[in-house]
Amino acid sequence: MERSNTDSFRHSQYLPFSPTTSSHPSTPLAQKHASLPIPTPTTASSLSGSASTLRYSQSRKTIYDRHLNRSKGAELSKASFAFLFGEMVQYAQKRVSGIQDLEKKLNAHGYSVGQRLLELLVWREGRSGKRETRVLGILQFITNTLWRAIYNKPADALEKSRDHEDEYMISDNDPMVNTYISVPKEMNQLNCAAFQAGIIEAVLDSCMFPARVTAHSVPNETWPGKTVFLIKFEQVVLDREAEFIS
């Protein structure tokens, strides 16, 4: 009985490689492949087995099965963070037309991270946590709890503007997001801490303190990479704060 076209095509995919036949000339490339093992067909069962080995541990549990409190005190390698953040900056840079657009893109990435981080922090606090209703309370939460959860240290300073009632400033003398970023001279106005500003803005918005947060470079002799995060609250926040005072 003759084989069908489908059967012959299926078996032709797995013909063994023979570098010694006349169809393969005796070249350095052919001699290099001659020392390699002959590939064998891979069955569907072996494919599924290898995939399960890659996706699951021996206990058949994924990262989603782990308890969230187990990673509470875990630390991430700075090298890993620097690599991922650098790749994110390069990815965003290819899709923008200027420095302002790039900072907006980084701010948007940080905003999505801030929303998820706040949910995680609130869940970990459990019944001991409280909802902040005052401006000073939410800012202290950001400069202490949030900053420690991300950078394992509090923010360096929290100040209120003397000229504008709706503005506050959080200072970071050496933002980690800028530590491994090399900014070219033609983009010296770029501050990648806009990603960090997006995290702050997301936490404020999610806690019902709508505000606009921007990152500004304020270098000095001691801290050449110092960054100030300017927080400008909306009028509704000031009106609510005035009601608490009265």
UniProtKB/TrEMBL annotation:
- Grouped into one coarse class, the protein's main location is endoplasmic reticulum
Q: Where in the cell is it found?
A: Endoplasmic reticulum; Golgi apparatus, cis-Golgi network
Q: Where in the sequence does UniProt note compositional bias of the Basic and acidic residues kind? A: 1-10
The yes or no answer to whether the keyword Metal-binding is present is: no
Q: Which InterPro entries match?
A: NO_sig/Golgi_transp_ligand-bd (IPR024096), TRAPP-I_su5 (IPR016696), TRAPP_component (IPR007194)
| Source taxon at top rank | Eukaryota
- GO cellular component entries: endoplasmic reticulum; TRAPPI protein complex; TRAPPII protein complex; TRAPPIII protein complex
Q: Where is the composition biased (Low complexity)?
A: 16-28, 41-52
| Keywords from the named record | Endoplasmic reticulum, ER-Golgi transport, Golgi apparatus, Transport
| Disordered as annotated region, ranges | 1-52
Q: Which GO terms describe its biological process?
A: endoplasmic reticulum to Golgi vesicle-mediated transport
Assigned protein family: Belongs to the TRAPP small subunits family. BET3 subfamily.
Summarizing the function annotation, the protein's role is: Plays a key role in the late stages of endoplasmic reticulum to Golgi traffic.
PANTHER family assigned: 41-2 PROTEIN ANTIGEN-RELATED, TRAFFICKING PROTEIN PARTICLE COMPLEX SUBUNIT 5
Query: What is said about its interaction partners and assembly?
Result: Part of the multisubunit TRAPP (transport protein particle) complex.
Stated name of the protein:
Trafficking protein particle complex subunit
Origin species, per record, is Terfezia boudieri ATCC MYA-4762
